[in-house]
């Protein structure tokens, strides 16, 4: 039987003038956020396929590195990270972006690692949504007098907020790579404070053994596995191709360290069930792995070798059926996440693809590319029941 | 003896007396019966006349006399007969019979009398004598009241009866052999008789009147004679008597040679060839498989034939016969074996014994004549290899001296450049094939034994390989291939990709080419081809659509599986259907396990290629940079691929970078950067880019290109490419209605010179002019009328149904070619003058007039194209003079290479087309004679080419050039008249009188009139 030729995008969003660096769907509305390398943040309507608004979120010289929205963040907020050392949280007011950011995190990091919001199993979705309303109201007043919190390290145990389920839902954390590019920092968006850095440097042994020789952190994924009673876990990929799994309760030593890739890890993605994920790097491999939280281990489930190296973005559909990667070779590749076999090679973009993302209802996939376009795809429609 | 002669003399006297009586009786006769009676009195002495056969039609008075007349005994009669025909009696009496009786009485003779009493004199006598008497009367001019017409009719009738119906030639040979045996004729006395006889026999059709019966026409007559001769030969072959055979065969040979001398060798051989061939086939069939020399050597028939041929002493006749034999064998589709033995049967003695005949085969047929290739094989087999062939392949005998000599001779002729320049293409192909076939049969040792074959072949191949003609190059590569196979059979040399196997088409497809002027209709054919393919495509689409609809009706996935793998499936429908189906299943299953649902995720086609990958160039600076990095082949290739697009976009930077870009594009080596087999596309892209560059920034890029053209650091191919690109660009500038690149294949080298639009139409018009159709011939029709549709004026608006968001809507809507404007004249000088300036300078690496004649041809062609593109514009007139100056150079116009001459003819024709008549008139009026002299030169020179050129294309082009010249002259004369008329009528006083010199010096000759301007 002759195979069906791969489909074309259902829509192509044009308007960016530079490489589109990241793409993210709104958690509930039919909106899509994209950020480009010239600092522009655009909001698109995914039904009408039109730009809703555009704003210069970051300076033209530095550009937007990553953009994200999350149900835990709130219905009308979006976070953008620029290469100007800041992470900004924006309010979406009547379709447009607020004139000034709600808050700015001065991370002073000028690297290429995209930040990560917390990923949680779906069960906690409802509560989070209801809670986010409160967050908004609280944030309004605090917007202007935001100060960078001091760099004093707090132990997780001291703060204790992560242990409390309610507290965890009320707080939004973001993981970014810090001023020292080997370190991953977790910031609290509400308090605008850095709450922890991984590995936690202890005063006695200055060079940290766990990350020594691994190079810069290139990809980070923050998630909250159901088994961990609300304690955050961090998956971080490094320049030498290794992936470290941290439990922030023990910030000194990672739970496990694996090396699936031979080149820098560029993208890490954890499934919404938090029991596994997919990673891509500068080498010609895509790796699917399982996470076992009871033993704190990470095991390779499937390794896919590509014809041409370079994967700059990965994403797993919320229903966990399929995963997609954005490749340097201009292709979006779609895989069966369960079995790990290739499903489609989507050729549309004429330049490196930077990111790929699925809509929360699993209907749409968006891909962002250096050719300044964003393509919307509909493949393998999900179950209507979900 | 003396007694015998005495007796003979008395007999003769008696006979003469009798005849004298009869003659006087005839002359005194008042009644037909008296004549008959007189004739009968003679006939009864000579022939066994039976009066009862004709007595019924004669009056009673004479009937009795007939029956009562004394009949001599048989012996007596034979004596009478012999005496009658040998002496003067027969000619005397025959004269009376043929003149007097025939004109006065014969028509009154009853048929039976005529048959049994009159005709017997001519039919029953010895044919040799009868013919000698009869033939002179064929064109006897009637005098003395003789009815010439009836006399000649009678003679013709008698000749037909005697020679054709009664097989006279057969009888002659019998008489010859009888007399040879009986009287022991000395050869000396018989030979002149035979030669006279054969001369008389073969001259009969020429002497016969026009209204003579068709049987005496040369065709039927000689056919009949030939058949009789063939029968004689067969008889001789089957009989054993040898004595007279020689003399008979020499007679036959004499007639053969005379027939050939009369230019009827084709007729002769069309009878002889099937006859011999049939015999050969019979022999071959009887000896199935084992054919040996002895079979034929022992068989008498070939011996007879070859002896006959030996008797043909006239070398011209032998040559003609051999030539015709080959053609006839070809027409009969004889196999190689059959043909060989046929030729052998006829000519093997000649070739062995006569050096002249041998040279006919070995020299003339190989070097001077052109036969079909199969005939060539036979010639080689017979005369060079000298041994019977093995089933349809050339076989080599033990004696190879002839082969070596022939090969050497062929190779030395073939290697000469003069030969290449001075011999028509067909003959070149023929000699190439001969050489190739010879080489095929040589071994390396034999090749080493020859003196300079190797050297000649290398020389010949190298001078052919640089020739612009495809066919010539193919000849070179074929010979090179053969040669390499001789040197090392395991490692043949393929100079050309087109042939792969061992078999070479020695005919070089020339059969097609002979048909006429080729290469003119190429572009037309291309268009047709495209149409066809597009039609085919739509067909395919249709069928696939039908398939699809069929499938959709039966909504079953299995149908999709079974369907034609090539069909186009509507993805959306398929996808939705399968997915929804699957989802149903999935929903049930997903509750229990996720994995089961995952299995139903059906992959798409995972085929992937990297065509679209790689860095895209967006700036011309990058392109130039990439082109310079010759070590990065991929980069260069990509740069070439994008160059045209970027140039067409005409960015601001183009002005500054045009020169650099042109230079780098010229200097890139496409063959280095591309993988094998894809050079052409890269080459094409490169040329397209250059064309685009020339079109968008002519001045900047032309400056560079003209500099490079004659610079020592480019090679011939680059020069040719530059010139090609310039002509293409000129064309595009001239038809600037389409700014898109032309997607036609590279056109023929010399394109058709006659434009679809006649040159005398105004070209710079917004809508095309059309000639108003008028009846009458071109020359009678002095007032051509033209019409065109006028565009609406600026203020005028047309009401329409649709709106357009465009200012140019009105134009756009119509045929888009309407708003074409010739942009070329502005740049014409930049295109032409620098290129013309230095063409004749010989310097390091550049020698246009000598070695690089291909470049010269291309240059001249390019200039011609430029002239055409500037047609009817004042620039054309200005440039024409300098172009014609260049063309008039002897080194150019009479270049030994036909390629250059063709280009010059094209350029000259272009000039004729491009000049506006009014300009010619104004130069004439001004008294500037340069132009008219140059135009006159075109005419004389074209005449000369048409008369004497060996190249077919050259003389056909020269003819059309002459035609254009005539047309130009006609239009000029009209323009001259109209200027004269209008100026005198409008101004009255100003009378432009032609300078007196013009009428003498210029001679623009008009067709079909004697008017000289």
From TrEMBL, chain A:
Its main location: cytoplasm. WD repeats lie at residues 13-54, 346-379. Pfam families: WD40. GO terms for cellular component: cytoplasm; nucleus. InterPro entries: WD40/YVTN_repeat-like_dom_sf, WD40_PAC1, WD40_repeat_dom_sf, WD40_rpt. GO terms for biological process: DNA damage response; plasmodesmata-mediated intercellular transport. It comes from the Eukaryota. It is found in: Cytoplasm; Nucleus. Gene3D superfamilies: YVTN repeat-like/Quinoprotein amine dehydrogenase. SUPFAM superfamilies: WD40 repeat-like. Keywords: Cell cycle, Cytoplasm, Developmental protein, DNA damage, Nucleus, Repeat, WD repeat. The keyword Cell cycle applies. Belongs to the plant DSE1 protein family. This is Protein DECREASED SIZE EXCLUSION LIMIT 1.
TrEMBL record, chain B:
It holds the Pfam family TELO2_ARM. Residues 523-552, 579-604, 789-818 are annotated as: Disordered. It is found in: Cytoplasm. Residues 796-806 have a biased composition (Basic residues). Its main location: cytoplasm. Residues 619-730 form the Telomere length regulation protein conserved domain. GO terms for biological process: 'de novo' cotranslational protein folding. GO terms for molecular function: Hsp90 protein binding; telomeric DNA binding. One of its GO terms (cellular component) is cytosol. Residues 588-598 have a biased composition (Low complexity). PANTHER family: TELOMERE LENGTH REGULATION PROTEIN TEL2 FAMILY MEMBER, TELOMERE LENGTH REGULATION PROTEIN TEL2 HOMOLOG. This is Telomere length regulation protein conserved domain-containing protein.
